[in-house]
Specification:
It comes from Flavobacterium pectinovorum. Keywords: Kinase, Signal, TPR repeat, Transferase. GO terms for molecular function: kinase activity. Helices cover 49% and strands 16% of the residues. The protein is an alpha/beta fold. α6 runs parallel beside α7, α12 packs antiparallel against α13 and α13 runs antiparallel to α14. It is elongated and about 85 Å long.
């Protein structure tokens, strides 16, 4: 129940604390367009940090539920902080005009083409100039706008890295064009698709065709997920889909849990330290999220290495420790542990001595190092 109450609290906080508004004068649209901006809680306190950006079409009603889900996920360490941009589309006929397409060509047309250019050529550059953004961009929409986000996939170099489509009313040829694009992509792309069992056939049947065709394309660079939510309507399924989409995209960001450990790590015959390094490299290179290796993840891999008697991998763990915590005793401790387990107490003692002169970290401190030094020195005398 604590998590349920916390979720409501975070949604309430996100609706007021981090939220502000801006107006952009658009040459493409020939008018001013209002946006909602959500900055991460740490934005002012971390002036060097850059954040992924989540762009929301239908920002009038998608901003708050997305903001609440992100706040909830970041509280538990499952999602990174991000900048959220909600585009207002509820004035007069803005939403319908923004999503105008040519029914024969299945492409943005007239006001729809102008809105397409507004997002790509004006809004994104404006946000990236004004705020500290990482290269990782996400875009999301619902029904008409969910279909519209897919047009950015058609570009030779897609503008966004991740696409979230809730019950899209797919444009003509879209169920074929998207899989064709996915078959050819050479960089990682994330794609989330959802539908409600309460959606009408006009919406569901093209979505089902799209789902089948994407699975046939079968490109490992496409991180794809499709959800069909039972007992939901066209509108209520969105509240189920938002966390599912975010957790799919940022799956690698989460701390190592029992499922990841059992299914992906413990089954390896070797390369445990490499797995840890690759996990955080993917966060940085693919998601644009740079954080030091969590000590909880580090200890999980260290314990597995000891369990598997793969002591040579402790040298790699030392490298990871030195890169992520260069002033801390972690790296030298790992080398000491490696030599200890390999039966070389003299060299182990020297590494523990080096570690004792560095900063403590986690459960490692000077007292622990002195105990290890005494233990190694005693062992070295016995083996003479």
């Amino acid at each position: 129940m604590r998590k349920v109450y916390l979720l409501f609290a975070l949604i309430s906080i996100s609706a007021f604390a981090q939220k502000k508004f801006d107006n952009i004068q658009s040459e493409k649209l020939g008018e001013e367009r209002r946006i909602t901006i959500g900055l991460p809680e740490s934005y002012e306190a971390n002036p060097e940090k850059k954040y992924p950006v989540l762009y929301l079409l239908d920002g009038d009603y998608l901003f708050d539920p997305f903001s609440g889900a992100v706040s909830y996920g970041t509280y538990w360490g499952d999602l990174p902080e991000m900048i959220i941009i909600g585009i207002h589309q509820n004035k007069n006929d803005e939403r319908e005009d923004d999503t105008t397409i040519d029914q024969n060509e299945g492409l943005p047309f007239e006001k729809g083409a102008e809105f397409f250019e507004f997002v790509g050529a004006e809004l994104v550059p404006y946000i990236e100039k004004k705020y500290r953004t990482s290269p990782f961009r996400i875009i999301a929409g619902h029904d008409l706008t969910a279909s519209f986000v897919n047009f950015y996939l058609y570009k030779e170099q897609p503008l966004f890295n991740a696409y979230i489509c809730f019950s899209p009313e797919l444009a003509p040829k879209m169920e074929v064009r998207i899989p064709e694009k996915f078959a050819k992509v050479t960089e990682p792309v994330f794609y989330y698709l959802s539908a409600a069992d309460g959606d009408n056939k006009k919406i569901k049947e093209p979505i089902e065709k799209l789902d089948s065709n994407i699975k046939l394309a079968n490109n490992p660079l496409v991180n794809y997920k499709y959800d069909l939510f039972k007992g939901t309507t066209h509108y209520t399924q969105v509240l189920h889909a938002i966390p599912s989409a975010l957790y799919q995209i940022f799956e690698v960001y989460k701390p190592i849990n029992s499922a990841e450990y059992n299914d992906k790590i413990a089954v390896l015959e070797t390369g445990y330290a490499d797995y840890l390094e690759n996990k955080y490299n993917t966060m940085s290179k693919v998601l644009g999220v740079q954080i030091p290796v969590r000590m909880s993840d580090f200890k999980i891999i260290e314990n597995l290495i000891l369990k598997k008697n793969a002591y040579d991998e402790l040298g790699k763990m030392a490298e990871i420790g030195n890169v992520n915590y260069p002033k801390a005793m972690l790296g030298e401790y790992e080398l000491g542990l490696m030599y200890e387990k390999m039966g070389d107490p003299k060299r182990a003692s020297k590494k523990y001595q080096n570690a004792s002169q560095m900063e403590p970290i986690g459960d490692l401190n000077k007292d622990v190092m002195y105990e290890k030094i005494d233990e190694m020195n005693t062992l070295a005398k016995k083996t003479k």
